[in-house]
Amino acid sequence: MRPSVSSLTLLYRVSDLVGYGQDMAAAKQIETPGSSTKPAILVVEDVVLVRLLLADFLRGRDFHVIEVSNADEALRVLESDFPVDVVLSDIHMPGASMDGLALARWIRAHRPELKVILVSGYVSETDPADAAYHEGAILKKPFNHAELERRLRAALEDTEPGG
C-alpha cells in the first residue's frame, strides 16, 4: 500500500543546483496558506544540498517546510500571506543582499512575533546586542539534528531554549 501524499511539487533548475541561480528558488512544497496544521518552518540556506537535507529531516519530523536560498527570497515569503512559525536561517550567504543577521533584524522590526534560529558553519564573535534578534545561541554546523528539533520546538512553544 502506498502512503498518501499531499500535493508536493519539487522542481530544480540546473543553475540552482550548481549555485548560479539568483532568482526565487524553484524548490517549494506547494500548499495553500493555512492548509497545514503542521508548524511551518522557513529554511533560508544558500547551499542547495544542505537546504535539501535540512528540509528532508524537518519534513520527517512533521514540520511543514518552505525552502528559499537567500534573504531576498525569505522576505518575499514573509511579506506574502504564507504562514510561517519559525525562520531557520544560515548567517553567511555570499552574494546575497543581506546575511542571516540582517534578515533577523528585519524580522524583529516587521514581524516581531516570529522566532528566528540562526545557524552557521563560520561562527565568529557576534555583537551581544544581536542576541535580541534570534532564539538562543547560534547553532554551529554541522549540528545535531536532535538539538535542532529541540530548539525549533522550544521556539514554537515560546520557551527558553536550553530549558
For the biggest β-sheet, the strand order reads: 2-1-3-4-5
Number of domains: 1
- Number of beta-strand segments: 5
Oligomer: single chain
CATH architectural group: 3-Layer(aba) Sandwich
Largest sheet report? 5 strands, parallel
Q: What is the alpha-carbon Rg in Å?
A: 15 Å
Which outline best applies?
Answer: globular
Low-confidence blocks of residues: 1-33, 159-163
What would your notes on this structure say?
This protein has 163 residues and is of the alpha/beta class. The chain has a single domain, classed as Response regulator (Rossmann fold). Helices cover 30% and strands 14% of the residues. It contains five helices and five strands; from the N terminus they run αβαβαβαββα. Strands 2-1-3-4-5 form a five-stranded parallel beta sheet, with helices on both faces. Helix 2 links the parallel strand 1 and strand 2 (64-68). The protein starts with 13 loop residues before the first helix and ends in a 7-residue tail after the last helix.
Short note summarizing the structure:
The protein has about 160 residues and is of the alpha/beta class.
Question: Which short descriptors sum up this protein?
Answer:
163 residues; alpha/beta; Rossmann fold; 5-stranded parallel β-sheet; 5 helices; globular; disordered N terminus
